[in-house]
Amino acid sequence: MILKRNDYITWDEYFMGIAFLSAMRSKDPNTQVGACIVSREHKILSMGYNGLPRGCSDDVFPWDREGEPLMTKYPYVTHSELNAILNYGGGSLEGSTIYVTLFPCNECAKAIIQSGIRTVVYDSDKYADSDATRASKRMFDACGVRYYQYTRTGRKIELEL
Hints:
5 strands; alpha/beta; single chain
């Protein structure tokens, strides 16, 4: 009798891997963030990455982090979480989980809450001490949105494309 293999990846590895792969689509030279929204049944509902809105040229708009506000990326870039929510065309996201490579900012937290996403799995929390992240956690706690940090397994996965 042939037994099933034991070295398959977990659901968290799978979906966080897709979030990391999505982040690789970002053209931001400093920060690449990806997101993957998943149903309770472990079906991928949507994906997103940080980038400019559809129709805005990546070559025309700025990617700078500092300077005059309108000459930086911040007023123009859509975050991965919001992109994933907006990319979903199938109705309600109620009860779903979002995997994201960076803890959501307060603006994305509002969209996550409003869309009905109930769990946030994140990799990095490098802005944990920022007001935006503190506000996100405060809202998530108040609304019962569960969040936890992804535990890296150290597994290496190589793809040849």
